[in-house]
Amino acid sequence: MSSNFRILGFLFERGGKLEIARGLQTVFAFAVPLMIGKLTSFPEIGSYVGLAAIFFVLGDVGGLYKTRALTTLATIVGCSVSLFISTFLGSILWLKVLITGLWLFGAGYATVYGHPGTMMGMITGLFFLFGIELPGGDWLVGLQRVLICLVGGGWGMFLCLVMWPLRPFQPLRSAVAGCYQAIAQYIQGCCADSIAELEGVVTLKQALQSARDALSVHRMGRMGGSPLGEILIVLIEDADRLITSVVSLRELVEVYRDSPQFLTVSILIDDAEAKIALVAQNLAQVILGKLTVVDLGSLELIAKAIAQQKQFQRQVIQDNTDDYATLMVVGRLVVILELVIKQLKSTIAIASDMDTVPRKHQPKGNVFLKNERDKLESKEMSWFEPLQDNFTLDSSLFLHGLRLGVTNAVAVTIYSLTNISQGFWVTLTILLVLQPDVGNTFQRFFHRIIGTILGVVFTVVLLAIISSEYILEGISILSIAIAYSLLRFHYGVAVFFISIFAMILSELKTPVGGGEIALMRIGCTLLGAGLAVVAVFFLFREREEKRLSAYLAALIDSTRSYFQTVMAVYLGEAEYEPLVIGKERQKNRLAYFNAQASFQRFSSDPQTKMSQIEPVLTLINYLNRFSRSVTVLMAQLEHFRGTAPVPELVRFVALVEGILAQFATSLTENTRLPSLRDLEVSEQQIQGIFHDFQAVRLEEFAANMDSTPTRQFLRDFSILGVEIEAINDQLAAIHSAVTRIIKCI
């Protein structure tokens, strides 16, 4: 029963947000060419130009203006070529089927370029499918169609890029502000359940990655830098450091929250986090250029109160090693809060003066900015590399292109041999319903069918009541505007309004009666949607659980590498190099994001059982907790003084690395899982060593001995001792989750 409710919820859940601006663009895109066509006695040409324009409006990917412009230009060129080639395929069935398969394969394979490539491929494929349904012709007819496409494309591009004020930095500002909004949301959701916390972590990582991607795109093709762009780079890195500090606060508080000596401090830390969340929200508004006051007064008072608690605990400390361990943690919390306040003051100053672009806030010598530019430039790749890297049957995007090409070729064959009228609706449905994964295809299948049937029934009634051409045209324009506003909010509702638009347009162009159009529309939609579902289930299908296992193994490997890089500094095997560690952390974030995306596809697959979802969710959750512990240790390295580690710590680190490697192997090769007994023994021995050091330090403390080797050892390794216990518990949970995953996947 719960599985059925989950599927129903998935089918009817909404997607993104309403896009009123896109709806308004659509009104202008279609209505203006239509009116000009009527005034110049070329209504059909005006209608075609308007149709072309609304499809180019649909293809607008948003974001940075340069990305939008390049994507739209590439789409216009692709659509023009599609129409020209399709002009010569009208009467040769085998050639039409062959070219359709190849062309739609390319349209599907364009998803290797992300959302811009997906939209470009979809619109280009749509124009090709529409072109092969038009009567064939010679090169002159082809050029006429290309001209209509170019006019419609130019008009759509003008609407997309000029309707808003041209503020080149606004998309990048929005992406950077999103980092601070995500920080606030993460802090506010820290006390929620594990699923909500996991979603918060995903949002954090996505926000940072989106800002860095926006920065990379903004930098492409620029000679030199701009002061505002450089300041935005600093704000992104400030957000990253703030995330590290917030994670450190949360982790340290959770370990000692139940300790009686820690009760007041934990309450104060909760208040401090709430203030940090408020400051982050206000910072986001400032970055967006809105007048907002950002005040750190309350946060500074809380930091002073925690510092007073540290002094109080220092005065009343007893001959108890637990008391000393708590004191060390409180001291570390004070240091973290002081760093957060210091950083926020700098960030607020930079963000508040962004519009004046002051150079005084830039790092001396721009060393950091130079390193950041070097990293961005090194990330750029040629346009051909994504195509080359994914040109293999192991790529889900390559398989999606094959499915799309073969399925549309089959559809063209079917409606050509059976003389189905309006066959374009069959292939259009396949193009829009067939997605790279089963879950989204399954969802679109039902959205498309339900939305079409309801829209067709409503339009039949409408056509029976209203006969005025002008009223019907007005309703059709209003319908497509509403549809475009709702496309990302809820596809099924958008399809309802798209069906109204399409049926009214067909009836006005070729009046054949509402009932006949309705039957054709519903029949073609059912056929296309059915072919799409059959294709995603049976054609070149790779089980999502297989890909999920590979992504989970990659996440474990990247987590192990991150842990290994940080611990090498503690063990004296490597120098502290923030850029090297930061690179490993970024790899871990990307691996986490890929695993989370695969998990979403896996959980939305109708064939996935609830019993299969829980262990994967647990594994991802505890791998994230493990990475958070490593991040705490990474932050502590700023204060590490290079004290030699105890031998047992070297053994513990080696055991952790070996266990993580075996976890990854077990997921991909279904091998036997490692025992955690040796790890537990090692952790207990390390805690015993720390206990002995703390006992010695208490004696030194009573004798007012301040600068001693024992004190330095505990300063360097106390937080590590706290996290070792957490790491041991996390690995036990990961072991249990991997065991259950192997059994059920």
UniProtKB/TrEMBL annotation:
<keyword id="KW-1133">Transmembrane helix</keyword>
<dbReference type="GO" id="GO:0005886">
    <property type="term" value="C:plasma membrane"/>
</dbReference>
<keyword id="KW-0812">Transmembrane</keyword>
<feature type="transmembrane region" description="Helical">
    <location>
        <begin position="20"/>
        <end position="39"/>
    </location>
</feature>
<dbReference type="InterPro" id="IPR049453">
    <property type="entry name" value="Memb_transporter_dom"/>
</dbReference>
<protein>
    <submittedName>
        <fullName>FUSC family protein</fullName>
    </submittedName>
</protein>
<feature type="transmembrane region" description="Helical">
    <location>
        <begin position="409"/>
        <end position="433"/>
    </location>
</feature>
<feature type="transmembrane region" description="Helical">
    <location>
        <begin position="146"/>
        <end position="166"/>
    </location>
</feature>
<comment type="similarity">
    <text>Belongs to the YccS/YhfK family.</text>
</comment>
<feature type="transmembrane region" description="Helical">
    <location>
        <begin position="445"/>
        <end position="466"/>
    </location>
</feature>
<keyword id="KW-0472">Membrane</keyword>
<keyword id="KW-1003">Cell membrane</keyword>
<feature type="domain" description="Integral membrane bound transporter">
    <location>
        <begin position="411"/>
        <end position="534"/>
    </location>
</feature>
<feature type="transmembrane region" description="Helical">
    <location>
        <begin position="517"/>
        <end position="540"/>
    </location>
</feature>
<feature type="transmembrane region" description="Helical">
    <location>
        <begin position="478"/>
        <end position="505"/>
    </location>
</feature>
<dbReference type="Pfam" id="PF13515">
    <property type="entry name" value="FUSC_2"/>
</dbReference>
<feature type="transmembrane region" description="Helical">
    <location>
        <begin position="72"/>
        <end position="95"/>
    </location>
</feature>
